[in-house]
Design brief:
This protein is mainly alpha-helical. It is built from five helices and two strands.
C-alpha cells in the first residue's frame, strides 16, 4: 500500500517529521517520506523511530537512509539490498535471471558498454558500418521478440 502523505503533499513550512515503526518501511518509501520536510528555508529533521530489536535488514535500511540524501545513491543501495526483481513480471525484489551479468556487480561494465554503444551509433546512426550494424541487429533481435512492456501488471 502507498502511504498517503508520500504523494502530492507540499507544505513548505513543515520542518519535522517523525516516522514511527520506520523498520516496517522500504528504503524508497522512507526517502519519499523524508522528502516531505525541508522544502522551506528552515532547518528540518526527519526522526526515524523503530522497535527495540529491528531485524538486520531494517537496520541496514535505516543506516542507508541516514547516510545520504542522494536519491540515486539510495536507489543503488536498495538494489544491492533487495535485488532487481523481475523486469518483465510482478516480482519487485529478489534475484533476476540474466544470462551473462549481475545488475549490481556488473553495473560499471554495463555503463561502459552503453557509453561505447552510444558513441558507435552517434558516429553511424543508420547502422551501415560493421560495428554499428551489429548493434542495430542485436537490438532488433532482442526487442523484436515481442516484449510489450505496457501489458505488464
Amino acid at each position: 500500500a502507498t502511504t498517503v502523505i508520500e504523494v502530492g503533499v507540499n507544505v513548505p513550512n513543515a520542518s519535522v517529521m517523525v516516522i514511527e515503526n520506520a523498520e516496517r518501511f522500504g528504503l524508497a518509501q522512507l526517502h519519499q517520506l523524508r522528502g516531505r520536510v525541508g522544502r522551506g528555508s528552515e532547518q528540518s529533521y526527519c526522526i526515524l523511530m523503530h522497535k527495540d530489536k529491528p531485524s538486520e535488514e531494517a537496520i541496514q535500511r535505516l543506516q542507508a537512509l541516514a547516510s545520504t540524501n542522494d536519491g540515486f545513491e539510495i536507489a543503488e543501495m536498495d538494489l544491492k539490498m533487495r535485488g532487481p526483481g523481475d523486469l518483465a513480471g510482478t516480482q519487485q525484489s529478489g534475484s533476476m535471471e540474466l544470462k551473462f551479468s549481475d545488475l549490481v556487480e556488473d553495473s560499471h561494465l554495463m555503463h561502459q558498454a552503453r557509453v561505447h554503444a552510444e558513441q558507435i551509433l552517434a558516429a553511424d546512426p543508420h547502422g551501415t558500418g560493421e560495428l554499428s550494424g551489429k548493434l542495430v541487429n542485436a537490438y532488433a533481435r532482442f526487442y523484436g521478440q515481442g516484449k510489450n512492456w505496457s501489458k505488464i501488471s
